[in-house]
Specification:
- By secondary structure, the chain is mostly helical.
- The protein has helices at 2-14, 19-26, 30-38, 45-55, 59-63, 75-96, 103-128.
């Protein structure tokens, strides 16, 4: 429920619309928009589709939790992830992979682990960086 309310408010503010103007686009009252943004109610799927069509976005952009507010990684962060990933892969290499026929599996596993590590690093940066140091 939180992601829909946050995404609707973000979309409305990005387009400099009042709740009343946004309500007209969605075909509802401004009170309905207010309840969506407060998270007390959610719009119906038909309404979400109408909003998505108007702004030229996917329904998932409204429904799903977007991590756009997570900080970007620095070059140092990227190097740390690469180093940690290589250490992890080297320690696993002797135990898990014997032979070249597993190369694609190893690369797929490495890619999945890297995506998880990048996401975890971004979440940690957001959570643990003091506000005065945030950009």
């Amino acid at each position: 429920m939180m992601s829909i309310s946050k995404n609707i408010k973000k979309l409305r503010l990005e387009h400099n619309l009042s709740q009343k103007e946004f309500a007209k686009i969605a075909g509802v009252s401004d009170k309905a928009v207010s309840t969506w943004e407060n998270g007390t109610k959610e719009p119906r799927m038909g309404t979400i589709q109408k909003i998505a069509d108007f702004f030229g976005i996917k329904k998932s952009d409204i429904i799903e939790d977007n991590d756009d507010d997570l900080p970007e990684l620095t070059e140092k962060d990227e190097r740390e992830i690469e180093s940690d990933l290589e250490d992890m892969m080297n320690s696993m290499a002797s135990a898990a992979c014997e032979g070249d026929d597993d190369f694609e599996d190893v690369e797929a596993f490495k890619s999945a682990i890297k995506v998880a590590m990048v996401q975890a690093k971004r979440i940690a940066k957001k959570k643990y960086t003091p506000k005065k140091y945030r950009k």
